[in-house]
């Protein structure tokens, strides 16, 4: 395949008539990294492309839609996935389920704000109610005034549309098309990798911190740019000078998984020591790797960070083709960190990560603006430092439809 991607005489890149990749674009993305191009600009700037992406890339995998660890029993939390209304429901036993947030009667959105239900979800339009397991419970006046049942109308045929879901470390994942592997299969390779640090089942020992361990950020950029940025350490010296001063770009290495994700690790992460924080640690963590940490993107939309004394997750929520929300949650080993004597430690840890993630906002937004360029052709990759990012591009591209 010949290419003029490095030609100094640039021409306007042809625009795609409808969402989907051409054979030429697929071939360019699948090239060896030294010659590969990234995803076309429209993948980041088109609302129509985002809709197709929701139905392909996000629907075919295990997409994280929110947290449930902080939901009370009987509570509901509405969430939105690129315009698709969903609701997380935590029933009286603590089981989290996800439903399409739409009444089976006239399509009214059922839940508009988070709250605790009185055993049922009630539609505000005509007061149809549903049990927390999704079953249609009551249909007031369906047969006329005072007639709450109707001949030949079977409530059992009008339960809420349930979505295949799974919960892991307080995060709720959905497989919208229902055709993905079991979630346990999806996460198995990563859990196996990290068992060498935490021991088998070690992540089950972490506990989410309270409000002083959570953070919400929003920025004007496509969600994929947040994933790409997280996958590499190339930008550390210029975007994160403080972090780079003790966890230098040279201390980092690439991580490439199979279908589950990719990212980077460091051999030197000493934030706790520098901040004077003393935290409980994973007791099976290898002593010769006490300063090692790993940062992976669990495809498609979760960022994870594993350290000897804490763990964090970031749900990257696509709001629109050019808007993204990040929900960060810090976890600590065991439950001893919840008491007041560790308030300063929790605050310092949260502020440390707040600074890092806030520093990423401007470059991610500027990449979004750059993709409006008529000559942007997908860019290029560093063969040494963009390996994980290129892996993400190939993973996404494999799930895109062909151009019409």
How would you describe this structure to a colleague?
This protein has 404 residues and is of the alpha+beta class. It folds into 2 domains: 64-167, Rieske [2Fe-2S] iron-sulphur domain (Rieske Iron-sulfur Protein); 182-397, Naphthalene 1,2-dioxygenase Alpha Subunit, Chain A, domain 1 (Alpha-Beta Complex). It is 25% helix and 24% strand. The chain has helices at residues 23-29, 42-45, 47-60, 183-198, 223-230, 236-239, 241-246, 271-275, 343-359, 361-370, 387-397, and strands spanning 63-67, 75-81, 84-90, 96-100, 115-116, 120-122, 129-131, 136-138, 162-163, 165-168, 171-174, 206-208, 214-219, 252-256, 261-266, 293-298, 302-306, 311-320, 323-333. Strand 10 and strand 11 form a beta hairpin. Helix 5 (223-230) runs antiparallel to helix 11 (387-397).
């Amino acid at each position: 395949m010949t290419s003029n991607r490095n030609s100094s005489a640039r021409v306007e890149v042809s625009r795609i008539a409808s969402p989907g990749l051409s054979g030429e674009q697929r071939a360019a993305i699948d090239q060896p990294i030294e010659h590969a191009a990234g995803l076309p600009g429209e993948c980041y700037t088109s609302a129509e492309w985002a809709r197709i992406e929701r139905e392909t890339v996000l629907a075919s995998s295990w997409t994280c839609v929110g947290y449930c660890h902080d939901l009370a029993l009987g509570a509901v939390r509405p969430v939105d996935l690129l315009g698709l209304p969903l609701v997380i429901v935590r029933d009286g036993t603590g089981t989290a389920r996800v439903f399409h947030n739409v009444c089976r009667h006239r399509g009214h959105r059922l839940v508009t704000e988070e709250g605790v239900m009185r055993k049922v979800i009630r539609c505000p339009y005509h007061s149809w109610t549903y049990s927390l397991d999704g079953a249609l419970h009551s249909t007031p006046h369906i047969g006329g005034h005072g007639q709450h049942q109707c001949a030949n109308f079977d409530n059992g045929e009008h339960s809420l549309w349930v979505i295949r879901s799974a919960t892991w470390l307080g995060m709720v994942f959905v497989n919208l098309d229902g055709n993905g592997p079991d979630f346990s299969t999806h996460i198995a390779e990563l859990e196996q990798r990290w068992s060498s640090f935490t021991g088998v089942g070690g992540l089950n020992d972490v506990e989410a911190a309270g409000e002083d361990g959570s953070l919400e950020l929003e920025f004007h950029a496509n969600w994929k740019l947040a994933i790409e940025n997280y996958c590499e350490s190339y930008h550390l010296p210029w975007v994160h000078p403080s972090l780079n001063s003790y966890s230098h770009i040279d201390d980092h290495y690439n991580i490439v998984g199979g279908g589950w994700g990719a990212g980077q690790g460091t051999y030197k992460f000493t934030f706790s020591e520098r901040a004077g924080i003393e935290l409980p640690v994973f007791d099976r963590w290898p002593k010769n790797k006490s300063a090692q940490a790993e940062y992976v993107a669990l495809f498609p939309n979760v960022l994870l960070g594993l350290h000897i004394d804490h763990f964090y997750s970031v749900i990257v929520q696509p709001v629109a083709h050019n808007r993204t929300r990040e929900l960060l949650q810090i976890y600590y080993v065991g439950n001893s960190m919840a008491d007041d004597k560790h308030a300063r430690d929790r605050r310092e840890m949260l502020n440390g990560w707040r600074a890092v993630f806030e520093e990423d906002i401007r470059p991610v937004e500027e990449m979004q603006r750059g993709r409006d360029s008529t000559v942007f052709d997908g860019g290029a990759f560093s063969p040494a430092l963009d390996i994980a990012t290129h892996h993400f591009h190939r993973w996404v591209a494999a799930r895109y439809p062909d151009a019409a």
